[in-house]
Amino acid sequence: MTSFTLDVLIFLVTATATTALAAYAIYWILNDSPISRWLHDSDAVVPSFLSITAFIFGLTISTLAGYSFDRHEAAISNLVTESSAIDGLINTSTALPSQDLAQINSAIKGYLNAVIEKEWPAMSSQDAGKREITSPEFMALSRAINKIIYESNQRASIENQLIESLTTIRHNRQVRQSLAYDNANIKKWISIPISSILLLISVGIVHLGSLKAMKVSLSIASLCIITAMTFLYISISPYGKWNPVKPYQLQESLKMLSITRN
Q: Residue ranges of the domains in the chain?
């Protein structure tokens, strides 16, 4: 069993248990609690109440699903932009003296290997404690470029290209870290349990006239909630769970660097 499957199974068990407990609590409140008699007199306002809560739940799920899709697209665009900047840096470095060329290529190789081998697995597992795991390699790349830029005999055109590439890499590195770790935890999305509970309450109230229908409807609503939450959970991070963004473009840049060095 893969870690992904195990992770999803744990979430499914947790979500199912939590939703089942909430549904049972709502069923007890509507039928056996001290206020159940008062609630049974509320059938006159049921249809509109159900429509509103169902709309809120659907709007919440669709909004968060769209948010996850946008983050996935942003991660792909970010990867392409960063790899393009690195490719540009590799091409520019070929115009440098041999000593500078070797120094900057070594720094690029170290940075790419660190991102692929250390940072990507950390992002995939959403290990925020390793957010700055590639900072030493990036700082080494930055120092190598700055050293070349501030050499007195450096041409302005090469200097501008090096600065532009470094700025782009720095920006996209920060964006990638934000996409991987910021707001990528479903626990922060409090709107999901709130809208789910409202939906279960309204489903229960609309079936106050039949206990059997209430049980069936609460079960179906719970299944819908669990399904929606599971799909959100596996797609919440563009670098982990289901259909993750892989560093293929950076691997191609690393191959390009090897060819250039040879």
A: 42-207+235-261
What is the percent of the chain where pLDDT is above 90?
A: 26
- Was domain 42-207+235-261 assigned CATH 3.40.50? no
Q: What is the 3-state secondary structure (H, E, C) of the chain?
A: CCHHHHHHHHHHHHHHHHHHHHHHHHHHHHHCCCCHHHHCCCHHHHHHHHHHHHHHHHHHHHHHHHHHHHHHHHHHHHHHHHHHHHHHHHHHHCCCCHHHHHHHHHHHHHHHHHHHHHHHHHHHCCCHHHCCCCHHHHHHHHHHHHHHHCCCCCCHHHHHHHHHHHHHHHHHHHHHHHHHHCCCCHHHCCHHHHHHHHHHHHHHHHCCCCHHHHHHHHHHHHHHHHHHHHHHHHHCCCCCCCCCCCCHHHHHHHHHHHHHHC
115 confidence band (pLDDT: 50, 70, 90): very high
Per-residue pLDDT tens over the stretch 72-105: 999 999 999 999 999 999 998 888 888 888 899 9
